[in-house]
């Protein structure tokens, strides 16, 4: 059993408190931290959390609890200073994506975690779903030979689907696409080399910054990824992880994941289509701890056993996904010019 504190009890943090943490039996909560007393009062009123477990500062929680894990569920700009302080205090840390606002900040935290001999994990929850797990395994086993081209589409219409962050900078690339960028690296087992990206804001959009974009991304083994995504698309809604077509020398792998839309919750789907044959659906193994429950369970197991599993989204690993985000934003700012990921990653 891993004793933990949670830092950040706002809208998304409350979702962690209510919907995620209680469903991971390997984690025992001993403290909740937020500077806003209303956030703590909500936990007490709506979830029955004992006031003695609620603290107004990290320092107070550190003094009065014996936690070893910090669950950081704050706004992005608070990630770096809070995670840094947690590591300095000796906590293992799991933090929501995006990991940090800059590559330099991310590198600093990775170095600090190593120096402190602490586990630092980024909650890339889309990795903990049946379809991408199966797809990654098929690619690793060379199911259809050398991978050639991957096409990914993500379509949502923010104004009609309850989206509310109209003034968020880079609402597509930094907030949503990071999931898809991370899945590219995880499923392909390759690292990105260079990319070209364009973004735009359609007429009549309530977004202050660009909600739509397209990118062409080249990976280290030669795989080319064509990526199209939008928060302002009026077409058929895709699952949150997007619609994937992965083309290899001897066939294709089609898959979708996290199909949650309004009252519809569908299963992950993966289909194999050997060259010149009909597609056939493949049964997927269930995941005991899916989505965010999977990331929290994963870091608890690493802390308990000292063994890091394949696909674990450590801070060091996640620098590659953050670099994809920063590279795509840089390319878009240059009108779609090709950007070498190494230029951003350093």
TrEMBL record:
Matching InterPro entries: Gfo/Idh/MocA-like_OxRdtase_N, Gfo/Idh/MocA_oxidoreduct, GFO_IDH_MocA-like_dom, NAD(P)-bd_dom_sf
SUPFAM superfamilies tied to this protein = Glyceraldehyde-3-phosphate dehydrogenase-like, C-terminal domain, NAD(P)-binding Rossmann-fold domains
User: What UniProt keywords are attached to this protein's entry?
Assistant: Oxidoreductase
Q: Where are the transmembrane segments?
A: none
* Domain Gfo/Idh/MocA-like oxidoreductase N-terminal intervals: 7-123
GO MF entries: nucleotide binding; oxidoreductase activity
Ranges of residues in domain GFO/IDH/MocA-like oxidoreductase: 134-235
Task: Identify the domain of life.
Answer: Bacteria
Q: Which family does it belong to?
A: Belongs to the Gfo/Idh/MocA family.
Any idea what this protein is called?
Answer: Predicted dehydrogenase
Species of origin reads Devosia crocina
Taxonomic lineage from the root: Bacteria, Pseudomonadati, Pseudomonadota, Alphaproteobacteria, Hyphomicrobiales
């Amino acid at each position: 059993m891993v004793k933990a504190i949670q830092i950040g009890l706002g809208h998304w943090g409350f979702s962690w408190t209510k919907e995620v943490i209680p469903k991971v039996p390997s984690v025992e909560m001993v403290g909740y931290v937020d500077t806003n007393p209303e956030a703590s009062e909500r936990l007490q009123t709506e979830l029955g959390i004992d006031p003695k477990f609620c603290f107004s500062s990290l320092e107070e929680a550190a003094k009065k609890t014996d936690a070893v894990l910090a669950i950081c569920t704050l706004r992005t700009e608070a990630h770096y200073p809070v995670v840094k302080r947690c590591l300095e205090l000796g906590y293992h840390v799991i933090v929501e994506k995006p990991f940090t606002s800059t590559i330099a900040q991310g590198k600093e935290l990775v170095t600090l975690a190593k120096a402190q001999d602490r586990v630092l994990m980024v909650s890339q929850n889309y990795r903990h779903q049946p379809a991408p797990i199966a797809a990654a395994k098929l690619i690793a086993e060379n199911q259809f030979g050398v991978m050639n081209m991957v096409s990914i589409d993500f379509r949502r219409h923010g104004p009609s689907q309850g989206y509310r962050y109209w003034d968020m900078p880079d609402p597509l690339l930094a907030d949503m696409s990071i999931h898809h960028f991370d899945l590219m690296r995880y499923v392909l087992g390759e690292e990105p080399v260079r990319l070209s990206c364009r973004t735009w804001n359609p007429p009549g959009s309530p977004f202050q910054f660009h909600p739509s974009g397209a990118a062409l991304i080249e990976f280290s083994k030669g795989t080319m990824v064509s990526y199209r995504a939008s928060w302002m698309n009026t077409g058929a809604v895709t699952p949150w992880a997007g619609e994937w077509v992965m083309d290899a020398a001897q066939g294709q792998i089609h898959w979708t994941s996290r199909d949650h839309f309004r009252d519809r919750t569908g299963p992950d789907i993966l289909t194999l289509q050997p060259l010149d044959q009909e597609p056939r659906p493949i049964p997927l193994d269930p995941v005991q701890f899916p989505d965010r429950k999977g990331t929290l369970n994963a870091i608890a197991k690493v802390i308990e056993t000292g063994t890091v599993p394949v696909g674990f989204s450590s801070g060091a690993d996640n620098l590659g996904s953050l670099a994809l985000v920063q590279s795509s934003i840089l390319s878009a700012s240059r009108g779609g010019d090709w950007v070498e990921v190494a230029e951003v990653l350093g």
